[in-house]
Amino acid sequence: MISNNLRRALSFAAACAAIVGGAATNSAARAAESEKDKELAAARDFFEQYKKLDQACDPKLTDLYAEDATIESDVERKGAPVQKAKYDRSKFCAQISKTFADPAMAKISKSTEYDGVEVKRELLDKNAINVVFHAHQGDTGMKVHWVLHRSKANPDQWQIHKEHSVTYRKSHGLKATD
After folding, report:
1. How far apart are CA 85 and CA 75, in angstroms?
2. What separation in angstroms does the CA of 74 have from each of 92, 126, 139, 144, 164?
3. pTM of the model
4. Residue 118: partners with Cβ closer than 8 Å, 6 or more residues away
5. Domain 4-172 carries which CATH code?
């Protein structure tokens, strides 16, 4: 038969174990949340790097795209069907190089303003992060959605795996429907 003192000691030990176990679980949960926060912060830094390269018309911008990236671009026009285009990385990079080499286009890129940046974890793919933002150049607006993945060559770096943009004219009352 177990004495009352021994029963109390065992109850106390069980309570301590539960508290320590709960603390360890909470600590692990906090560590996981902290890691997620770090990844989201790194994705925000990635966006800032993109913005800087874009406004500087720096061709290194194309290095931010994964080798197997897909880029979809929609252009909305008042009273006309949406014009859709799809590019692989090589075609997109060639287009960016051509755009950055054109002085008139370079001037427009330098005046681009960005806002509405949202960075969040992808729901269907836990290894991906979604970034959504708006870019404005005069009367033209663009809503951009990225799916970022870790670089295969350098897992510490993010790359754009998928991009979908919708371009529209603000003066026509159009807004991105993406």
Report:
1. 9
2. 14, 27, 17, 10, 8
3. 0.76
4. 130, 131, 132, 133
5. 3.10.450.50
pLDDT value at 178 more than 50: no
User: Are residues 40 and 130 in contact, defined by beta-carbon separation less than 8 angstroms?
Assistant: no
Sign for the CA dihedral angle at 117, 123, 129, 130 comes to negative
* Interatomic CA distance for residues 159 and 18, integer angstroms: 43
pLDDT tens by residue, 90-143: 999 999 999 899 998 888 888 899 999 999 987 778 789 999 999 998 889 999
pLDDT of residue 30: 55
Indicate the length of the chain as a whole number. 178
Q: CA 72, 52, 93 angle in degrees (round to 5)?
A: 35
Confidence of residue 26 (pLDDT cuts 50, 70, 90): low
d(CA 42, CA 57): 22
Looking up tokens 């809503």 gives 143
Residue-by-residue DSSP string for 99-153? HHHSHHHHHHHHT-EEEEEEEEE-SS-TT-EEEEEEEEETTEEEEEEEEEEE-SS
Q: What is the pLDDT of residue 77?
A: 87
